[in-house]
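Case study 2.
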Amino acid sequence: MMLQHKILTINPGSTSTKIAIYKGELELLNQTIRHSREDLEAYVSIFDQLDFRKQLIAEALQQAGIDIAQLDMVVARGGLLEPISSGIYEVNEEMLHDLKTATLQHASNLGAPIAQAIVEEAPQKLKAYIADPVVVDELADVARESGHPLFPRKSIFHALNQKAVARQFAQKVGKPYEELNLIVAHLGGGISVGAHQQGKVIDVNQALDGEGPVSPERSGTLPVGDIIRAAFSGKYSEKEMLSMVVGEGGMVAYLDTNDAYQAVQSVEKGNAKAKHFFDVLTYQVAKEIGAMAAALGGKVDAIILTGGLAKSDRLVELIADRIKFIAKVEVFPGEDEMRALALNGLWLLEKKIEGKIYNPHGKSFEIQG
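Prediction:
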């Protein structure tokens, strides 16, 4: 009988902390702990929220009848670390230091320290890990250049979901992920399109704040000259300009909503403005996929569409119609980060992948022994 490992996954967000328990691939618990603005305003920094969030997790597990003594592993969402290669990383002091002192602070930076705090209280030997944070960097050298040495391209994308669905597809077709060439398009509040060449993402648009297709909350690639002129026009502050790119760009700017489900419903009801936006979005996604096909030299085994927007059959159809000449199109709708974290932990426990250790210079090496 196969041993069913029990894994706790943790995903801290700006206004919530998600937790889940998996027994093998079976989900036993999935809960979102909401945090009010008043609760969070009591803390000066992100890291000041550590004990507060950890205690809420402990209470939620207790109420659900989950004993940490029964856990085999804790896997948390990774934060804004130094660039690293893809993989599952054991939490260590170097990682905790880099997360606490990172220039960019986000709630995801709390994932590793919360996980570590939980395992330190466990009666058994238990380890904490993170898997495929957004800073996964496997770019080819030529993909790092932009057009000016002052502005090198950065790898910031939906690594966790992209890598997870790529491995699931590989399992589905019975081939190692490391032997496939795939294009994965994550379609969510942000959109990232990655060229996966034999297990490495050799090119991907910087999905956080600068490149790629328009999305529900982000403008994507914009005319640089016009942006510079607007920035120096005196009409806008730096904060307002940044908001145009992330938060108030994309669908928010065109349709005054970031609710993609609502916008898709508007399209189905015949709203011409909404239809035009989604025609633009799907066109730009297809164009980005075409660019990644070129990055792979035209050798593409499959194109995978994933993320929340991939739940829309119409949107998937519009993209697929433009790109199906490149390779077959597979759809993995939704974005299940909790499951992706658990799968990484399960693959490690089953020795299907190897664990890595983070060091302060952003490089990694295989765990020995």
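Residues 69 and 123 are 6 Å apart (CA to CA).
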